Structures are given as structure tokens and as C-alpha cells.
User: Fold this.
Amino acid sequence: MTVTRPRRTDPLTLEVVELIGAVVARYYQEYEEAAARHGLTGAQARVLSLLALEPLPMRQIAQRLKCEPSNITGIVDRLEARQLVERQPSPGDRRVKVAAPTEEGARVARSLRDSLDFAREPLAGLSRDERLALRDMLKTMVGAE
Amino acid sequence: MTVTRPRRTDPLTLEVVELIGAVVARYYQEYEEAAARHGLTGAQARVLSLLALEPLPMRQIAQRLKCEPSNITGIVDRLEARQLVERQPSPGDRRVKVAAPTEEGARVARSLRDSLDFAREPLAGLSRDERLALRDMLKTMVGAE
DNA sequence: TATTGTTATACTCTATAACTATA
DNA sequence: TATAGTTATAGAGTATAACAATA
Assistant:
């Protein structure tokens, strides 16, 4: 009797896994370069882009980026020094400081977002059905805990 | 007369682009955690994994990782202090130092590689044709200059 | 002279722990 | 007492510039 086990060494799967690693490295690097073109570090760009979606208390920024809250102080300090972000008081709780992008900060965030063409270009060559299939595949990858 | 231009704001494409960003963030973080479980930083894990494929001179490590050669000195120092990597002389050129994994380093590199199940799992749910399509798509993304 | 690897320096990111001001 | 944000500290990664050994 033959027992079917998952073949972890399926060559095609391994090739895809390696390609995913390569895409991640490429994307990450392109993101750093795009940030640098805007005079930002990667971490600063990530925080600014996050706040451009929605202003957030310091602690919640840390939760989203999965790092310690103490790190956010310095990153927001540097964004604030460049007048891209402001610390605003929270009406309900005087301990809380809400970080929000300035108008200039919002502009930089938009420009940064628009400059991330890397991932967009290859998608142009796909049919709608292919993009749908890719979307579902990626959703599975993000959703898997 | 209507001119057809690429629609950069196609909602499906934007969704896929955002998903790619999410996958990259997820993968990157999982890699850091896998490295940490082996007592390594992300950079150390990347260098060790690279050397496990093939020993390389210091300068070539920097080229592969797209960083300055001076950074590699410290990373290899720390890997060498833990006896995961050795600096070996190059027969032809006495200026060159070839970094090569020790036996223990090779073991750690294999263990690290095996622990990167994150990307592999969701692929199991795909048909062979889907995986082929995904492979071609990823190849396009990596290959695009 | 040019190249390889290193050192020295400065900046940023990161986690940990202790502190402050509020709650 | 608990929580939000900060400060202090130490380790690591990064780029730049200058250096020693070798080509």
C-alpha cells in the first residue's frame, strides 16, 4: 500500500519558491531606492506611507510595522524635522500623540507611491483572468498564518 | 478618435500591486524571524546562504547583496566569530580572501533554508498549470530591468 | 597606478530597560 | 496601577573616505 506524502522537493515548487525570494529581494531594494530618491530611508518611507492612509497614534504605528514603540519616536522625529509629519494631540487622551502627514508629507507619499512602477509593469502583460488568478494566489499567501 | 492609453489606475492591477507589497513585507519579516531562530541577523543569514551555494571573495559578496564591500567585513567577521564561515586565501591573488562556510555553517544554511516554509505552503494548493503560470509571471518581474 | 580588503566615521534602525505624564 | 510616549543604551547594518597589501 502506497502512502502519499507531500513532496517538498518538487522541482517546480522549489523554482517558484526561489523566484519569490528573488522578487522579494528585488522589490525591497527598489523600495529603498525609491525612498532614497525622496531623501527618505526605507523605514521613514514606510511610516509616511502608512500615515498617508490614516493618521495614527505612535503605538499603533509600531504595531503595524511590528517593531518596538521606542523606535517610532526617532523615525517620526526625523520626519517631523523635515516637516513631512506632525504630532497632534488626541482629544480624548492627553497621553496619546497622533502622527499625521503635513500637506508636503502627503505630496511626498503620493510621489513615492507613483514611483513604485516596478511591480506594476509586468502586470500589464497579463490578461484579466491571469491577474485574477494571481490576486487569489497572493491573497492566500498573505492570509496564511 | 479615441486614443487608448495604459490605465495606471485599473483597480485590479492596483489591488495586485498592493498584495505584492504585502507579500514582500510578510516574506521579509518571516525571513528575519527564521534567521533569528538560528541566532543570525537577516544580513548574516543572507550572506551565509549565499556562501552555502558557492564560496565567494569579499567583494563579490558585496556585489551580490548590492552593498558596499566595507560592510561585508563586519558581517563575515561576526559569522567567522561563530565559526560558521572561514576566510580562505585565494591561490591566484594574494589580495583576495574567499569566504566559505564551515561544516557547521553549511548545516545552519540548510536548516535555515528548510525553515522557509512560508512561501511553499500556499503553492501546494495550486495546480501544475497554475504554478507554471506563476513561475512565468515571477520570472518577468525578476527579469525586468 | 589600480584593485582587494580593511579601518575609521557617522547615521539610522533595532530591542531592551527605565523614566514621565497621564489615565 | 496601568498605559502612551520618550529617553538612554548597546548592537548591527549602511555609505563614505582613507589606508595597507598586493597586483
The first strand of chain B starts at residue 56 and ends at 57. Helices of chain B lie at 11-37, 42-53, 58-65, 69-81, 103-114, 120-123, 128-143. Strands of chain B lie at 56-57, 85-89, 97-101. The mean pLDDT of chain B is 89.
